[in-house]
Specification:
23% strand, eight-stranded parallel beta sheet, 21 strands, binds zinc ion, 13 helices, single chain, 430 residues, alpha/beta
Amino acid sequence: MAVVRDLVVRGGTVVDATGTRRADVLVRAGHIVAVADDIDPPARAEVLDASGCTVAPGLVDLHAHLRQPGREEAETVDTGARAAALGGYTAVVAMPNTDPAIDCAAVVREVLDLGSTAACDVHVAGAITVGRAGQRLAPLAEMAALGVRLFTDDGAGVQDSRLMRRALEYASALDITLAQHCEDAALASGGHMHEGEWSSHLGIPGVPAEAEELMVLRDIALARLTGTRMHFLHLSVAAALDAVRAAKGAGLPVTAEAAPHHFTLDDSVVASYDPVFKVNPPLRPTADVEAVRVALGDGTLDAIATDHAPHTQEDKEAPFDEAPPGMLGLETALALALTELSLPLERVLALLSWQPARIAGLEAEHGGPVAEGRPAHLCVIDPATVWVVEPEKLASRSRNTPYGGRKLTGRVRHTVLGGEAVVIDGQAQR
Ligand SMILES: [Zn+2]
C-alpha cells in the first residue's frame, strides 16, 4: 500500500542485528530513507515520539494460529493480525491447522488474500501432508510457488519416518523449510498435561517428556540422513533441548523455537483444573522451564514463537480433559520475554525479530537492519512501561490468556508496517 506522508520516528535508540545507537528514522514511500541524529521532520510529515524507547525491526512470529478459514468465531486473520501489530509484530506465519487445512494453492491464496489488508504481513505455513493426516505428501511445490517457505502439520507431528524423509528430500529441492510439531503420537496418546508428579496428584492422564524427545531425536537423524534443514516448533523439555544443542554442535542444519508459556509457567498451575493452562506441548516442571530459559540464552533456541492459539470461551469452559489446548500469545510475548528473561534487550529482539525472520525466509523484508533502503517495518518499544494484562482489552477475538492481572514491564508504543503507523501510542489504527 502506498503511503503518501513521510514519517519520522524521533528520539529513540535504534537496536538491530548490527548494534545499538541513538538515531531518528525518516521513512518515505514505505522505505527507510535516512537514519541519523536529529532529523528535522519534513513539512506535513507524521512524527512518532520514541523518546526513552527502542526502535527495532518489527517482530516476526513463526507460529500463530489465526483460525481462518473455519474457526472465525475464535479469531480471524484480521483480528489476529491486529493483535500481532499491537504486540510489535510486522509479520506472522499462520499455521495450517485451519478447516480446511492450508494444504493446497487454493487455501494458501485464500489466507494470503485475507491478509492483504491486515495490520501486519500475513504469511502462511503450508501443511506437509494432505489434510495434515500424515498419509501422503501435500503439493509442496504448488504452495512454494506462491511464496510459502515454511511447512508443517503443526498440531500433530509427521509420524511416518519414511514419509518425513521424503518430505525433507523435496524440501531440499524446493528450498523450503520443514517445521515439526515434536510429539510421538502413540506415546502421547490420551495425555492432557505433563506426565509427572502433578499429573498423578491431580489424576489427569499425562504426556511423558519422552514423546517430545523421541520425535526430536528421530528428526535430527533424518536431518543428518538428508542433509536438509529442519525447524523444531515449541520445544518444552530439557532432553529435547540437549538433543538440539548436540545436533548444532555436530553442525547439523537445525533450528528451534520456544513459546513464552514454556519459560513463564510450570505444570503446578494445572492444580486449578483451569483449561486456560492446557497447551500442547503441555506446561512442564520447573527444571524444564529453567532449561528453556538457559537454551534461550545460550543459542540452542533460535526464536521465541507465540503459538498464539485462540479459543472461544465456550470451548475453553469444557472440563480439562475435553478442552482444546492453546492460549493467546501475540500481545504479551515481548513483554513476558522482557520481564521474565534476564537477557539483554538485544538478545530478546534477536529471538523475536531477526532470527525468526531468517527461519521463515523473510529476511529480505523483515528483521533486517534499520538502515537506508530497507522496507520500513518497525516497532517502537518502551522498555520501562509497567502495565497489567487485561484480557477484556485484548484485540484478539478470544480471551484465553492465563496472564490476566499479571504485571509486565515493557510495552509496544508504535508499530510501523511498510511506512504506515498501524499502532500509535498503543492504539491499533486499523
Ligand atoms: Zn504445535
